[in-house]
Amino acid sequence: MARLCQRRGAIFAALQAGFPDVAYETYGKPSPYLIMEGLERSAVLAKDAVFIGDTPATDGQAALAASVPFVLIRRPVRAVVAMNGRQGQ
């Protein structure tokens, strides 16, 4: 049975399970690829940019790998509860 992969999505996990011999590369965080692509397309140097995120393990690591300063935001507890589908807390 195929296992769903965190941060990769169900569709990717299904493709990976159906085609296990196919080489692949993912571009999601914590890979710096998307940050570096954004810097290149906007002609901005890493030292002149800042990456804002709410998850140090993915957002922060991607920023570090791209040599971009990282700003961690903390969401209010009520917002996190609402995003997780739990009401009334």
UniProtKB/TrEMBL annotation:
Q: Which Gene3D superfamilies match?
A: HAD superfamily/HAD-like
- InterPro entries given for it? HAD-like_sf, HAD_sf
User: What domain of life?
Assistant: Bacteria
Name this polypeptide is given: Ribonucleotide monophosphatase NagD (HAD superfamily)
